[in-house]
Design a protein that fits this description.
The protein is α+β, with helices and mostly antiparallel strands and 126 residues long. The chain folds into two domains: 87 residues, no CATH class; 37 residues. Helices cover 25% and strands 32% of the residues. It has two helices and seven strands; from the N terminus they run E-H-E-E-E-E-E-E-H. The longest helix has 25 residues. The protein is elongated. The relative contact order is 0.18. About 4% of the residues have low confidence.
């Protein structure tokens, strides 16, 4: 399961470009739309747009602002999109999606190994 139940996707889309302030004709004529690749959690989708957030709060607590830097992308601007598998087949140490005892045991062992290595390094330094 993806964090907070959101699907991770990538989107290739065209974004507008602009200048601020007064500019000359050559600057105006040289403007081009920008092709953007965006990676994020699909927060919402309807007939007109999709809304992505590159970061979402997954602690399970009562977050009042669970999204960081969300962006709404008009569907007419989307050139291509696809899904991203962010949950590895073998979880990284400390990755605790779900309540797997295997993940917890492995994380505890890795922390113990780190502590032992750190203690040995400190002993060598003194």
């Amino acid at each position: 399961m993806e964090p907070n139940g959101y699907k991770a996707i990538w989107v290739r889309w065209l974004d507008s470009a602009g200048e601020s302030g007064w500019v000359g004709r050559a600057d105006v004529l040289s403007q081009r739309v920008v092709e953007v690749y965006h990676l994020g959690f699909l927060i919402q989708e309807d007939e007109r747009q999709i809304t992505l957030s590159p970061t979402t709060y997954v602690d399970g607590g009562d977050a009042t602002c669970p999204y960081h830097s969300p962006v709404a992308i008009p569907k007419v601007a989307i050139l291509e999109r696809g899904e991203v598998n962010i949950v590895p087949s073998e979880p990284a140490v400390g990755l605790t999606f779900g309540s797997s005892t295997t993940i917890t045991a492995r994380a505890a062992q890795e922390r113990a190994n780190f502590a032992a290595d750190f203690a040995a390094q400190r002993a060598e330094e003194s």
